[in-house]
Amino acid sequence: MAPEKALFRIELTRKALKDIEHLSSKLKKKLREILLNRVAVDPYSGKKLVGDLSGYRSIRLNLQDRIVYRIDEENHVIYILRARSHYEKL
Asked: How many C-beta neighbours within 10 Å does residue 71 have?
């Protein structure tokens, strides 16, 4: 199955890059697949967050970890803020 055509560019914050360093190689691969085949193609498929995290979305990476991101519609960019924690301080 060929990957979908990305409609949004993905950018990782420093905090997200640091989170990714701590992931296992299996989770890094899963993260890459989710970002390229789901988030970049349909960023609104993630769970809409509320409260202090209003304006952000998340997708489960595993039972404990989430990918937290923000959509910049004007520039067609997805900013990945976290890739490990469960809504810890952004």
From this structure: 18
Domains of the chain and CATH, by start: 9-82 (3.30.2310.20)
> In this structure, are residues 68 and 82 in contact, taking their beta carbons and an 8 Å threshold?
yes
CA 46/CA 67 separation, integer angstroms? 9
Cβ neighbors of 40 (< 8 A, separation 6 or more) are 4, 6, 7, 8, 9, 10, 78
Segment 55-77, tens digit of pLDDT: 999 999 998 899 999 999 999 99
- Whose structure tokens read 């701590």? 22
Residue pair 46/58 in contact (Cβ under 8 Å)? The answer is yes
